[in-house]
Protein 1
Amino acid sequence: MPDYVISTPPVVGIPVTGGAEVFPVRRVYCIGRNYAAHTIEMGGNPDREPPFFFQKNPDNLDASGEFPYPAHSSDVHHEVELAIALKAGGTAIAVDQALAHVFGYAVAIDMTRRDLQAEAKKMSRPWETSKAFEHSAPVGPIHPAAKVGHPDRGLIALKVNGAPRQEGDLNQMIWKVPEMISFLSEYFELAPGDLILSGTPAGVGPVAKGDRLEASIEGLGGIVVAVV
Ligand code: MN
């Protein structure tokens, strides 16, 4: 091991259900507008246009159950999403081979500074300040596909203080999990440890300090996140 000039950054790990093991994260890719009803609510065209991706930082993932309301925004939105954890990578992965690269699945929330994102869109600027900020990806434990299979249908939902806000079905994804992996692998070299957030159904909306978010996906349980 080299003699590093500063201490080495820690590896980000997400708990895996059923034991003490932890999934180490390399990169976090996120797909935009992957459910037709959400695409329409964001003013987009729900036709099957090529998918687009942005990234969050691995250390934006937070399994603590708390979301500190970030500075420099007064319009922070919740987006409940299915997270896909890869155990194998590569380039030009065929759609019919893609699921063999998946280790498991988790419930995640893509927290978004919507006001900063709207400004970035208007100015044709990148999205990092609206998407890739500290604690911006609350996440639950990873359920191994060996135990839960590869969910492609079922309720994906989010409640705020007990009131339903987002409800959709995994089968409403415009680009399905194998297609997303295949498409990403044409542009990036995927690797074990990569995580993909697969887009959010309709009903995104603002959160406030004191709110209690409950995000759930059929077959994967749920997570509770307090906005602090
Ligand atoms: Mn999202």
Note: Helices lie at 36-41, 114-123, 128-131, 145-148, 177-187.
Protein 2
Amino acid sequence: MTEYGASSPVSGCEGRDEACRARPGVGLKPVPCLGLRVGIVCYPSQGGSGVVATELARELARRGHCAHVISYQVPFRLGRFGDMRENVAFHQVEVPSYPLFQYPPYTVALANKIAEVARYEQLDLVHVHYAVPHAVSAVLARSMVLPQCLPVVTTLHGTDTTLTGVDPGIRDAITWSLRQSDAVTAVSDALAENARRVFQLDAVRRIYNFIDPVTLRRRHDRELRSRFAAADAAVLLHASNFRPIKNAGDVVRILAAVVRERPAVLLMCGDGPEAGTAHRLALDLGVADRVHFIGVQEDMCPVLSLADVFLLPSSEESFGLGALEAMACEVPVVCSNVGGLPEVVTDGVTGFLRPVRDIEGMGTAVLAALAPERHAVMAKEARRQAVHRFSTSRILPQIEALYAEVVAARRAAEV
Ligand code: GMT
């Protein structure tokens, strides 16, 4: 593993202390840190990129680095106080409002905050999650502080590459910010390939999302399970932000197909625009009494531990973090054969991949996965692959190595 020496001063960056300490109104002292000081920029809302960024901040702290999470509110998986003692700090972006502004200038406010945190906390680099608009803000912030002191790493998460980032209204700015980034990563080979093509980037490094196998493991709770399901009923689970691409209606349709053959219930975890539609569909299909909407859950472990099969019939999914978290808890996955999902789920081994909108196919796959002997083998293999291929011990060294590389390269370039 990469070793990081103590907070050794780096050539060319010595002056930043004075420059930043001069900024009034920041009440906290910089956190003493033996590793790298990393700014992490993300969306705080329920959603994969914010979850990955939050887990990364925690994991970096565990490894002796300091993580400074920058967003407009505390990310939902970051405890308000709990993480603060662990070298994870939160910095809120303050967005000005003024009658003239029909749209709040968030991109500028974020750049301002990144630069302020970089100076005051002496960040070694900033790592933005989701390019829109974070990469633009980070590159601007880098120009505002001493450029040799603030490498920018941008991680693409999905719709920033397939949807929002390629909107003609912002595409050129996003492309520019990616080209200006010191490194661009993507969470799957499929997304990396897509990004190279649509943004015409030479190098996009694939670094998979990860799970902590120690905290995320199956913990049986028969009493809790019995509140949702009779002893003979299978528990199907879907967890998402219920955006249209998640096809929450298809989750309900798959349940309806399954209950024609055997008893089952469905837990719907999370919240979002299509939750109401899914509920009405459950009523229309006569399965509403078997569908439990359990809302947003900060700790997914108890929920995943109730499940027998995880459903993710999305139209698009660059990785499918929910699927990986399910696998870590011994839950086979039935999902669409799109984007990065085939890199996470091995068809017929840790779950089943079926074409998007293939309700009957997915229903049949759920029944196959629930066959007792097959289920036991798949559950075990799902956990094994999650740990072997995606655990923190495998992925974090790749991120640390990338950080060391970009820090060294930028400093060497400026000497
Ligand atoms: O791309 C998005 O819609 C946002 C993003 C999010 O914040 O939820 O989701 C993406 O990032 C996750 C973490 O890397 C991936 O697991 C999801 O597959 C991906 N979503 C899509 O590609 C639709």
Note: The first helix runs from residue 16 to 21.
Protein 3
Amino acid sequence: MTAAALRDFRWLPWIDEAAAALRPLLPRPPEVGVVLGSGLGAFAERLEGAVARPYAEVPHFPVSQVVGHAGRVVAGRVNGVSVVVLQGRVHVYEGYTAAEVAFPVRVLGRLGIRALVLTNAAGCANPGWAPGDLMRMTDHLNFSGQNPLVGPDDADLGPRFPDLSRLYDPRLAAVLDEAASALGLRLRAGVYACMLGPSYETPAEIRMVRAVGADAVGMSTVPEAIAAAQMGVPVAGISCLTNMAAGILDQPLSHQEVTETADRVREAFIALITAFLPKAVAVLAG
Ligand code: HPA
């Protein structure tokens, strides 16, 4: 799309078309939305009474080419909570705009979710932590140069200049910590730096993001988090730290290491989200 066309484009009719197409699929109104990152798709297989639609069959949904991103909307129940899961996401590095990347999350927002859980695989920039650690996102640094709110102001999606000072909801953060400690699971808490990718970072870039406070580094999540914040949807973010970031260890990074580590922590990750969901619904209702 040219810049001029983008300035005139209105997302809302497309968002509502997609929401209208999904609504008949949902057994009940969804309470929580969950976005599953690289290698973390297995959670969607654990839903009770699951119904699924490939992204390709939902109007206007972007479709990913990345290995490990199945690309389905799955709705069902987990631990008594009605959830709608986005199994796989697209990324800005695939050539999509940040608004296209955030599109499915905006659809979930219009479907009435009361909270959004964003997950990702990320490099670990904190030298005191280790691959396989799970991290609750306390905040983010957007180094991608992109923002999903670029384009016309549409008040129906939320404010033009949304406040992000509590983007990662403190109530959901407390509930995540509680769920982790009840499971005896160590949950780190830190700042996620979003890079454009798709190349991994250089060691100098990792020294830079560490110097400005990043603990984890990845190529996703931030567009969806910003779009949800604009809609007033409380967000929780969980990173699976799959590898030490570039230059921290004297070894090359590989996508294989990312998927292998995500596989290794799969059960802990699923247990954490499962325990989190009912507590999250309760804390937001109260
Ligand atoms: N950098 C950026 N994105 C990532 C990484 C990384 O080291 N690991 C998994 N996703």
Note: The chain is about 30% helix and 25% strand.
